[in-house]
Write a structure and sequence with these properties.
The chain has about 250 residues and is α/β, with parallel strands linked by helices. It contains eight helices and nine strands. The strands form two sheets. Strands 3-2-1-4-7-5-8 form a seven-stranded mixed sheet, sandwiched between helices. The protein is globular.
């Protein structure tokens, strides 16, 4: 088993069918795990329909109610590791991440020898379509602030289109991941770098969702800011405890 694409869903019935078809079109290397949080619009039932049509390529986990993006991905990571997948992808279920870029991220991981690849909106060749300037400012400013405070030379820390080697996730204590919302993206990258793994960015074009409504909220932004502050405090406390020159960041 090579690559597993993890798709957390909540009320994505209008996007899920075409997205699953587009992912499977990228080749037999890519299997899909849909993790549905009890969507009242029938997303979970649609996922089961596609699972029946594509045995062995699509699996579905049904959860009771909205348990959050982070816990969905963590459940997906544990599933993928248990099944023996070598590469595990995070991907939004609303077409904001281009399915045709799945092979691009996987190729970048293999060719560069990186451990984590981020589909980045903020490196040369990447960008965003159909966002307001205020949302662009918030997103880019949040990535810059997190990178500055956490000393991470990564342009798109809040991006959610990623590929991990299984070794990265095996090295992490997934039970200790604290973020529950979109701060999860920052924390996962921070933890990978902290463990000495190499992270690279490849350009993607991010698009506003085709159908449905965004899950972004003021509470999610506040949680991400609080997470960055806490990680920065923990890093400072750790550096004080360690002998000078002992800790090396990649």
């Amino acid at each position: 088993m090579e690559a597993l694409v993890i798709l957390p869903t909540y009320n994505e019935v209008g996007n899920l069918g075409p997205l699953l078809e587009a992912i499977l079109e990228q080749g037999e290397r890519f299997d899909v795990l849909v993790i549905d949080d009890g969507s009242p619009d029938g997303t979970g039932l649609l996922a089961e329909h596609y699972k029946a049509l594509n045995p062995g390529r699509i699996e579905v986990i049904h959860r009771q109610g909205k348990l959050g993006l982070a816990t969905a991905y963590l459940a997906g990571f544990r599933y993928g590791l248990a099944k023996g997948y070598r590469y595990l992808f995070e991907m939004d279920a609303d077409f904001s991440h281009p399915p045709q870029d799945l092979p691009v991220l996987l190729a970048a991981l293999k060719e560069t020898g990186a451990d984590v690849v981020i589909g980045s909106r903020y490196v040369a060749g990447g960008g965003i379509r159909r966002w307001s300037w205020t949302r662009r400012w918030l997103s880019r400013g949040g990535s810059w602030l997190a990178g500055t405070l956490l000393h991470l030379p990564i342009r798109d820390l809040t991006g959610g289109f990623k590929c991990f080697r299984r070794e990265v996730l095996e090295a992490m204590d997934l039970d200790q991941i604290r973020a529950t919302g979109y701060g999860f993206q920052i924390e996962m990258t921070y933890r990978a770098v902290e463990l000495g793994f190499r992270v690279v960015e490849v350009p993607i074009w991010f698009e506003e969702r085709r159908e449905g409504t965004s899950k972004m909220s003021a509470g999610i932004v506040a949680e991400a800011l609080w997470l960055v502050a806490r990680l920065r405090w923990e890093e400072g406390a750790r550096l004080k405890r360690e002998p000078k020159g002992e800790r090396v960041r990649s």
